[in-house]
Amino acid sequence: xxxxxxxxxxxAEVLVKGEGVHKAIRHVVASDLMSDVLLVDEEDMLLxxxxxxxxxxxxxxxxxxxxxxxxxxxxxxxxxxxxANDLHMSLATCKVSKYDACVAVHAALNPA
Length: 112
What we know:
globular
């Protein structure tokens, strides 16, 4: 599953199509604590968070994430789109809760 496919599943708006937008996602991390995200040692990861901050994108870059989806319909600061463009990081936003986003992505990755 790619970032574009995840965006379709979550009915998310893709604000920035970064370098990893078509890269296969192998892991999903859902967290608002960037210190916890920094401990993740997985490749091809997608970050789901309700934290609308530039630091989310910087953290995602450090861990090599494919992209970031901000959940809960949180309004994003305009600087976040600029940082995503500067870092070539895919960025999307959706209205569903973090829990529902996790359930939907899991279901899409593991069809019954």
